[in-house]
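Researcher: Go.
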Amino acid sequence: MENTKVVFTDHVHGEVQLFSEGIPAGKMSLAMTHGRLAVFHTEVDPEFEGRGFAKLLLAELVGYAREKKITIIPLCPYVNAQFQRHPAEYDDVWNKDWHQ
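Model: Structure:
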């Protein structure tokens, strides 16, 4: 069984962690900046590739952002690609003007 959780190591830096049967399977690197959640990198252990785990990480990230009423800066290529492919699905959490 897979489970995910958002963990902050301090008040700024954190990650979304994914475990499969209690084994670390993947993560997303995050930072909270000015009330926005920047996601830098998504990584799934090669042993767990092809199981849709990156999508599980993204779902946890988006759920967290919606719960906290914050937006996401998609600096990670995977997250950015998903936001670009499915803009309506992520419009409420997608911070499109982060570079301004």
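Model: The mean pLDDT is 94.
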